[in-house]
Inverse folding.
């Protein structure tokens, strides 16, 4: 069970998370948020959270696996009122997740471009941002108390429970993430880029980059002033706004 009073007691936001739709099971919190938008049942700042997702979504059409009652899986709706929001959100969502985890557990996590949540070389969580009807739907999944993983991801996945050896309360973790996210929206894109780079797991490191059907060996140089990835390939600097990095 997700205890809403415990979550609310740790929430300091003005808007984010002040209305919460809690479901025991759903196909996907992002999909449920879309259905609620169609029915005018959800507004900017509202969140949808579920103990179980039967068809969770990851980036690039991947399936997002989560453990019922153990993972933190939720979606936040934000109205698109800032022309820079489409560039800010992929960065501040990852930053806010890292800061929320640190605040609750003192665990130092990192980010893999654009917004995978990492601990050492293992993946703790991911973020999927979709846009519909003048809103952004931010889906965030974090492995909190998971102890087993699907065979397709078990070699690369981890959880806070696996790292710390103790159960973690999901309620304050969600509150801390939302607190940080609402505060970060007021930062300039340049301030966000500097903060994101400070959490990056592969700054100035050589990486494999999956660009469409091509795998590229490159050096990750950071972000440009629009928040896109700046990489060095064959002594040339190139900018990418999508793709998958392999460490």
């Amino acid at each position: 069970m997700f205890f809403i009073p415990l979550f609310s007691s740790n929430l300091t936001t003005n808007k984010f998370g002040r209305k919460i739709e809690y479901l025991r099971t759903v196909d996907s919190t992002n999909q449920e948020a879309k259905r609620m938008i169609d029915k005018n049942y959800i507004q900017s700042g509202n969140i949808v959270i579920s103990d179980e997702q039967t068809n969770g979504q990851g980036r690039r059409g991947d399936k997002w696996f989560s453990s019922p009652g153990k993972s933190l899986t939720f979606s936040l709706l934000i109205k698109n009122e800032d022309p820079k929001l489409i560039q800010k959100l992929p960065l501040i969502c990852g930053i806010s997740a890292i800061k929320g985890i640190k605040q609750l557990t003192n665990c130092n996590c990192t980010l893999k471009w654009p917004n995978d949540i990492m601990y050492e070389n293992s993946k703790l969580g991911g973020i999927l941002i979709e846009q519909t009807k003048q809103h952004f739907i931010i889906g965030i999944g974090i492995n909190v108390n998971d102890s087993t993983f699907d065979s397709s991801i078990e070699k690369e996945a981890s959880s806070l429970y696996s790292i710390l050896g103790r159960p973690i309360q999901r309620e304050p973790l969600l509150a801390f993430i939302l607190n940080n996210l609402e505060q970060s929206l007021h930062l300039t894109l340049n301030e966000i880029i500097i903060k994101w780079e400070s959490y990056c797991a592969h700054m100035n490191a050589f990486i494999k980059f999956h660009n469409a059907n091509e795998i590229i060996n490159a050096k990750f140089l950071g972000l440009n002033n629009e928040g896109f990835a700046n990489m060095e390939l064959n002594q040339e600097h190139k900018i990418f706004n999508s793709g998958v990095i392999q460490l």
Observations:
- Helices lie at 4-9, 29-38, 85-105, 160-164, 170-184, 189-199.
